[in-house]
Amino acid sequence: MGFWSNLFGGNKKAEPSYKNRLNWVGWDIHNHILPGIDDGSPDVEESIKLINGLKELGIHNSVSTPHVMAGVHNNTPETIKVAHGKLNDYLKSNAIDFKLNYSAEYMIDDQIDQWIETDKLCLIADKYMLIEMSYLSESKALFNIIKDIQDRGYQPILAHPERYNYYHNNFKIFEEIKSAGCYLQLNLLSISKYYGENVKTCALTLIRAGMYDFVGTDMHHTRHLEALKAVVSKYDVQELLKGCPIKNSKLIESKSEKKTA
């Protein structure tokens, strides 16, 4: 049975090991492992479980991206830095070898214009801005926000485009987003049925078209971790994405890394 047939429901037996299956990724650029700051890890203990899980998968570098969402997760560069420092101090004091950088995932809401205009942003590698939309309704401001970010000299990345159900019957919109100069980031769990069959179908369609620029775990908790282990045990994700220009491993060079001290 072919590789793509297996993805769409084949009965191929799962491989026995997931260890180091994602070492090609380099940097996980989207996760919620910083403690007590959003709907992700509630404390350092849980964060360490998630980090150990990433390491087992072969990922030893993380750009953690807590939500910035008006009225829900009112994070600022200061609150994110504090949470990062707390977890990073624990890593250092316990000699855990894991590179932990930080950024944010910005919801396109009534507050995002303020963050961009004041240039008070937590960016990935001082350049990339991870943005998202509501899963319930399309943001009419998307293309304006993309332009505003670019006008500041930064590069927008749209998180998990495959999860926006209102785009599932409009492939052209993804082409328009890419043509506007916005990168697309795949949630690795989307290639399974974790978020539903429609999300999986959309993700695989975008993969086949070579549309993705980045991948991320979007890991919030151990349920995500266990699901991710199952996915990478079953599928050769690197082979699946060979037609996409995945940039994770080259995203952060030493000169542009955020200080982890």
From TrEMBL:
The keyword Iron-sulfur does not apply. It holds the Pfam family CpsB_CapC. Keywords: Hydrolase. InterPro entries: Caps_polysacc_synth_CpsB/CapC, Pol/histidinol_Pase-like. It catalyses: O-phospho-L-tyrosyl-[protein] + H2O = L-tyrosyl-[protein] + phosphate. Its EC number is 3.1.3.48. Belongs to the metallo-dependent hydrolases superfamily. CpsB/CapC family. This is protein-tyrosine-phosphatase. It comes from Sphingobacterium daejeonense. The lineage of its organism: Bacteria, Pseudomonadati, Bacteroidota, Sphingobacteriia, Sphingobacteriales.
